[in-house]
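can u do me a favor
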């Protein structure tokens, strides 16, 4: 379920990354090529991007399908950025959260997205949620599994964990509490991208010094795209990509 993408590199229009590629996120909302779960990503979308000189990203999120939002396509034509995180949300059971449930979630310099599902939600995550301060639970933007995963990741970031460590530990703890969950997480601060492949597809494209793209699936047929093995942590900048195996929880 869901498709997401992160980019760091030389500034590009949002449209060049999301709309214009033949199989970009815009098209993936109704015709993904490698999505294993769900078929139509029409329950909301969001884009977060960074402006030069401002470490806090802007966001544009809506509760409807990306193809129906003419304001987005106009905005994407003129807005340029050196770092982007965007997502389209799989059609799911109806809920009251609407736009608030659409990634990316944000705090300070961070943008976050989750592609997947927590098995047994919400009961399976009770013990992990109980470990969070009440203030952080009450501050969650939405009442879905992705929002709780973001709260768990953010708690670790605030305690000083690196982006990679925050994702790896959150995936480990969630997989132990809810075996069989799909936990492809994506995080950026505008400079570093951290991501996990855990139960769903993840790919990356890198041209050192120019750009690095990490996505649920390739947006074109460039032979430089490489698939990330399942149970892998990815850490990337615009110059390099590091892959690290993730161990199953004991």
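np, heres the sequence
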């Amino acid at each position: 379920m869901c498709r997401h993408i992160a980019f760091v590199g030389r500034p590009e229009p949002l449209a060049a990354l999301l709309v214009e590629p033949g199989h970009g996120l815009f098209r993936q909302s109704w015709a993904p090529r490698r999505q294993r779960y769900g078929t139509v990503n029409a329950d909301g979308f969001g884009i977060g991007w960074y402006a030069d000189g401002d470490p806090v990203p802007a966001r544009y999120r809506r509760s409807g399908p990306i193809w129906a939002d003419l304001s987005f396509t106009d905005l994407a034509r003129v807005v340029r950025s050196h770092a982007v995180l965007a997502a389209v949300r799989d059609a799911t059971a109806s809920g009251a959260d609407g736009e608030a449930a659409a990634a990316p979630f944000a705090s300070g310099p961070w943008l976050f997205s989750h592609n997947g599902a927590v098995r047994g939600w919400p009961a399976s995550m009770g013990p992990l949620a109980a470990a969070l301060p009440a203030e952080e639970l009450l501050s969650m933007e939405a009442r879905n599994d992705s929002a709780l995963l973001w709260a768990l990741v953010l708690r670790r970031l605030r305690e000083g964990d690196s982006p990679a460590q925050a994702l790896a530990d959150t995936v480990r703890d969630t997989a132990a509490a809810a075996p069989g969950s799909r936990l492809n997480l994506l995080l950026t601060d505008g400079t570093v991208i951290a991501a996990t492949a855990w139960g769903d597809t993840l790919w990356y494209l890198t041209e050192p010094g120019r750009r690095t793209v990490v996505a649920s699936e390739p947006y074109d047929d460039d032979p430089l795209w490489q698939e990330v093995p399942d149970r892998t942590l990815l850490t990337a900048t615009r110059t390099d990509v590091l892959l690290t195996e993730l161990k199953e929880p004991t």
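The CA atoms of residues 160 and 166 lie 9 Å apart. hope that helps!!
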